[in-house]
């Protein structure tokens, strides 16, 4: 993609309304634009990151055996009246009346709807277990939306719902999601710690939230350094093995970890001082086991192996997909801008032509651009080198290929690794090899 | 995906509310489930088709030089008040008041919003031309939603918006989209005819709708057989060439084609009788050139090459993505069910194990299943062969691999091509080659 044709606008000024670094950088780097309070348009670079984050979430949900569906954004009020949550939810729920004056709402979550959908098909114990998820826009009418997509009103969430025949089955499903989450965040280059949590309006008696560490996080967290040393991607637990999932759960939850609100000083004191760690955290996921809290009132029941009626045990599992984009920036930035991890970068490479119009520069840039279809941004603008350096740093492409007239004449490319600042001068072929063309 | 673990429910009975074949088959084959009038949940098989359709649309938009963004579903009323359409739109617009009593709406289309977004960045003629699109859920509060996703209330649409410096530039953008649409529909195995159309509530003075031919279409169309003979995918017009786009436009629009409402008997009489064709059609796309109808009131203006203020010329271009899923079924089905074209099938292959538990059957099925990760459904259910044949025909997988004990013992597979009914008995390796493993 050539910058002279692209819609990748950057802003020089820091927008006044942005209070946290991710919000500032998302506006300045042209990832999002506010269209109403707490509601954003995703511009091309932002949408590409959002999609890459969603794809990683999707792959790990699929790996765990969950199946993707897509529920609509608009729900009928009756579903929520049946579960008793219609009144409870208060003003955060966006309530709507359609042209026939029927009460509708913009879904803030989908426990009721998925239970109703599943009820339409599940009749026997053979239809269980199942785990269904979707990645869909939700709406929560926050009083004071702020921090950009970190606490927006219209936001993208992955929510999964498990249906099991027994409580033990439901705990297995819960552990599968816990492991899937640890893998998901690690693949994005994030360190996410599972912490025991309150269940809030979802309900139930077992719940963990996933907190990623970032200096600019919203709350303080306390944890045992042992948690930092676990490489979840390397563990290769078998999702179908009860024993593996139990081992994974124990490994992830036996070391101490708590947010400020859940801090237990007596337990904390038991962690050896040299392993005590304190940091700032951002919640990016939350999982719940709540038994029959929704299946019971929604009338979901299947015939068990002996013909008896069984009300399935359920859990729900959320990941804030749009929030993760902001959280990734909170965890990966410097004064100059964003430093995208490779796994979620909108484009892997920016090609900076320092002298458009110079035949050698143009030729080398074009050749490199052609080698990375759909993976490179080619800055062919008639701008000063300083502007190009600043924009590339701001937008955070993992690699920059800097091509000036002197180097180009000798067929040399300068590569810069945004994450580390490392620089390397090399031949065109070496550059291709380094960039993994 | 094993059917014993999948969420791929089929219905034996034809639901009473479904009046057209695509609606009946989408419900029976477990593609969608209604959650309110005109609002649907997409089940796993339906979602996969929806995503494949959207991906083809996306690839062809990208090829044409359009860039993807994502606007939110909820819009502020002020945008529509500025263009004057807030009152015009009537009851089809879903109007909402948020907790602060601000007037909002669920977007039925995005001319106002994209113009406002673009205005935030475009300052100079160098920022033009641009074409921005998104694939997002829309809402139109139809009085009587019906025909399933063919005329639903919450529906998925691709809408693109072009910004040009001149009227001639805007016509070029219009022609680019016209060619992109012809390619898009042809890739899905559909024959789409562009027809001159009324501009309706979008406005403007140049408009074409794209009608696909299907026996069960909603309206009658009249066209010159010459249009049927054009292979758009083979044309390889250059999107960047004004001359190519003009040639493409002339080729696509010079032969007679009209819906009932636009039929011109005098012009129709000029088409040689042996080339006159009449058929039923379904509208799947609509493109508009409307000049400065939105850029003017929304205050979009850029500095021209000589510093003068220029109000960009705009067009908008829609494809009904969720509607296309139904249209594809209207065009591809028989008594037994859906016949998915390869390009949009949810899975390319169904493996029917006629005797689960038979060692040879199980082994051969597992081996075939392993050869098509994520592309095959393995019917391992303890069901009669007849049930499996019926479900595979109903769900419309392009290929069926039928494996019974006798064949399996000899290492033989029976392949069935759903589209043609053709059958072929072959070895395992021949089957792999035939299926393109």
Characteristic key phrases:
homodimer, 437 residues, alpha+beta, BirA Bifunctional Protein, domain 2, Rossmann fold, 9-stranded mixed sheet, 5-stranded mixed sheet, 14 helices, 28% strand, globular, protein biosynthesis (chains A, B), ligase (chains A, B), nucleotide-binding (chains A, B), ATP-binding (chains A, B), ATP binding (chains A, B)
Structure description:
Chains A, B: Its EC number is 6.1.1.15. Chains A, B: Belongs to the class-II aminoacyl-tRNA synthetase family. ProS type 2 subfamily. Chains A, B: InterPro entries: aa-tRNA-synt_IIb, aa-tRNA-synth_II, aa-tRNA-synth_II/BPL/LPL, Anticodon-bd, Anticodon-bd_dom_sf, Pro-tRNA-ligase_IIa, Pro-tRNA-synth_IIa_bac-type, Pro-tRNA_synthetase. Two copies of one chain form a homodimer. Chain A has 14 helices and 23 strands. Chain A is globular. Chain A is 32% helix and 28% strand. The model of chain A has no long low-confidence stretch (mean pLDDT 95). Chain A folds into two domains: 335 residues, Bira Bifunctional Protein, Domain 2 (BirA Bifunctional Protein, domain 2, 2-Layer Sandwich), CATH 3.30.930.10; 89 residues, Anticodon-binding domain (Rossmann fold, 3-Layer(aba) Sandwich), CATH 3.40.50.800. Chain A is α+β, with helices and mostly antiparallel strands and 437 residues long. Chains A and B meet through strand 1, strand 2, helix 2, strand 3 and strand 4 of A and strand 1, strand 2, helix 2, strand 3 and strand 4 of B.
């Amino acid at each position: 993609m050539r910058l002279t044709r692209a819609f990748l606008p950057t802003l020089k000024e820091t927008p006044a309304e942005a209070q946290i670094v991710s919000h500032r950088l998302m506006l300045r780097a042209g990832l999002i634009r506010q269209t109403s309070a707490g509601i954003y348009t995703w511009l091309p670079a932002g949408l590409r990151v959002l999609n890459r984050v969603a794809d990683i979430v999707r792959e790990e949900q699929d790996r765990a055996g969950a199946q993707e569906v897509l529920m609509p954004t608009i729900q009928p009020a009756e579903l929520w009246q049946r579960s008793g949550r219609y009144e409870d939810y208060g003003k955060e729920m966006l309530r709507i009346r359609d042209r026939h004056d029927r009460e509708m709402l913009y879904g803030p979550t989908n426990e009721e709807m998925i239970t109703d959908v599943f009820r339409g098909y599940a009749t026997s114990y053979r239809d269980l277990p199942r785990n269904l998820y979707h990645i869909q826009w939700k709406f929560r009418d926050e009083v004071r939306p702020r921090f950009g997509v970190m606490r927006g009103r219209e936001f993208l969430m992955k929510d999964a719902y498990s249906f099991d025949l027994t409580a033990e089955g439901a705990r297995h499903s819960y552990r599968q999601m816990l492991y899937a989450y640890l893998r998901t965040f690690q693949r994005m280059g994030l360190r996410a710690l599972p912490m025991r949590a309150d269940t809030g309006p979802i309900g139930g008696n077992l719940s963990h939230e996933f907190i990623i560490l970032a200096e600019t996080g919203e709350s303080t967290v306390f944890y045992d350094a042992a948690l930092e040393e676990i490489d979840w991607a390397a563990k290769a637990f078998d999702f179908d093995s009860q024993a593996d999932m139990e081992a994974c759960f124990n490994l992830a939850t036996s070391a101490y970890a708590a947010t400020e609100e859940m801090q237990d000083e007596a337990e904390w004191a038991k962690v050896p001082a040299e392993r005590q760690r304190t940091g700032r955290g951002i919640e990016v996921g939350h999982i719940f086991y709540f038994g029959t809290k929704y299946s019971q009132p929604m009338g979901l029941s299947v015939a068990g192996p002996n013909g008896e009626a069984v009300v399935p045990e359920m859990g729900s599992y959320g990941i804030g997909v749009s929030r993760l984009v902001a959280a990734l920036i909170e965890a990966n930035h410097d004064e100059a801008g964003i430093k995208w991890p490779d796994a979620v970068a909108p484009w892997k490479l920016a090609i900076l032509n320092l002298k458009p119009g110079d035949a050698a520069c143009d030729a080398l840039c074009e050749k490199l651009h052609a080698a990375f279809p759909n993976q490179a941004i080619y800055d062919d603008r008639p701008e000063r080198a300083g502007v190009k350096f600043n924009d590339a740093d701001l937008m955070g492409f993992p690699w920059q290929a800097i091509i000036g007239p002197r180097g180009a004449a000798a067929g040399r490319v300068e590569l810069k690794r945004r994450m580390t600042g490392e620089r390397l001068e090399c031949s065109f072929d070496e550059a291709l090899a380094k960039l993994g063309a």
